[in-house]
Specification:
With about 325 residues, the protein is of the alpha+beta class. The chain contains 6 helices and 12 strands. The strands form 2 sheets. Strands 1, 3, 6, 8, 9, 10, 11 and 12 form an 8-stranded antiparallel beta sheet that branches. The chain has a 4-stranded antiparallel beta sheet with strand order 5-4-2-7, with no helix packed on it. A hairpin with a 4-residue loop joins strand 9 (about 265-270) and strand 10. Helix 2 runs antiparallel to helix 5 (about 180-205) and helix 3 runs antiparallel to helix 4 (about 150-175).
């Protein structure tokens, strides 16, 4: 083999080796090149739960799942006969308390006042007669005509008549003046107490008709017509469609300086469109959340943060549960 042929073979070998190295390096570069990070989240919405303060049976459901309701719309009607019975009791107690209060304020009837006046007049006449009798007996006693015992007996009758007159005067004054101030206050307090009980029962009666507190969409209805619901048991959920946000679970090494107030662009696969959003909430999800252990490499553990962002743009048809993609 000539020297020239040998030289060519060496060059070919070197060239092949270099080509292999280049190809392997290219393959390694392509294999090790990092794809863009994809952060996935979903659309959330604020909801409020409709429930009643009183137990009852579902008498009627005025809406269905998916209906849009406005504040003040009737959602459900409950049947609560026990509350109706308590309302009747409370109203009767209020009427009785009002009657006693009126009697305390009005005082005695005219017939009672007239009767007390007549008794007072009789007592005055009796007292006047016994007083005159006593004066005559007293003079006779001084003259020695009657004994001391006779005089004392007449005096006792006179004193009893005067006491009877005072008692009749008190009865007449009480009939004219009516009840005492304390009795009037007590009667008025009973009326207020009864009215409070009526107001309380009426408030419970209002709970038998459930109305929407805010505009929204009926997302869930739990009981069926005819079923019993307890105090505070959920009847339905209303989603406030104008209060949506996106929630993302992001590992801290992917946050890359993300902060509250920052604007970002999210891709919505359901519409094949992008939407601008503004971050308003970032919080550590706690030790229970997904985390990445790196201590095996002598580094640290990376925790996961919950990031929430509100849409800046309006996207018709955006609904809770739809996916949101952030490419970094």
């Amino acid at each position: 083999m000539s020297a020239k042929t040998q030289h060519n073979n060496i060059l070919l070998a070197i060239g092949g080796f270099v080509a292999v190295v280049v190809i392997v390096g290219l393959i390694g570069f392509l294999a090790l090149s990092r794809d863009p990070d994809i952060l996935q989240g979903q659309v959330e919405v604020s909801e409020y739960r409709v429930s009643s303060k009183v137990p009852g049976r579902i008498l009627e459901l005025r809406v269905e799942e998916g209906d849009f309701v406005h504040a003040g719309d009737t959602l459900a009607i409950l049947d609560a006969p026990e509350v109706s019975a308590k309302q009747l009791q409370a109203e009767s107690a209020e009427q009785a308390a009002s009657a006693l209060d009126n009697m305390a304020r009005s005082g005695a009837r005219k017939e009672q006042i007239q009767g007390a006046y007549q008794l007072l007049e009789q007592a005055k006449v009796a007292a006047d007669v016994t007083e005159k009798s006593y004066q005559r007996i007293e003079r006779l006693f001084e003259q020695g005509v009657v004994s001391e015992q006779q005089r004392d007996e007449v005096k006792a009758k006179r004193d009893a008549a005067l006491a009877q007159q005072k008692a009749a005067q008190s009865q007449y004054d009480m009939a004219v003046n009516g009840a005492r101030a304390e009795e009037k206050q007590a009667a008025a307090a009973q009326v207020n107490r009864a009215r409070g009980a009526v107001a309380e029962v009426k408030a419970y009666m209002g709970e038998t008709v459930q109305v929407a507190q805010m505009d929204g969409e009926v997302s869930d209805i739990f009981p069926k017509v005819g079923e019993l619901v307890g105090t505070g048991a959920p009847i339905m959920n209303i989603a406030m469609m104008d209060k949506m946000w996106g929630t993302f679970s992001i590992r801290e090494d992917q946050l890359e300086g993300m902060k509250v107030g920052q604007e970002l662009t999210a891709y919505v696969p359901a519409f094949d469109k992008e939407i601008r959003m503004k971050v308003y909430y970032i919080k550590d999800m706690g030790s229970y959340a997904v985390w990445k252990a790196t201590k095996a490499n002598g580094q640290y553990d990376m925790k996961t943060f919950e990031v929430k962002a509100r849409p800046i743009d309006t996207l018709d048809g955006l609904r809770p549960g739809m996916s949101l993609i952030i490419r970094k």
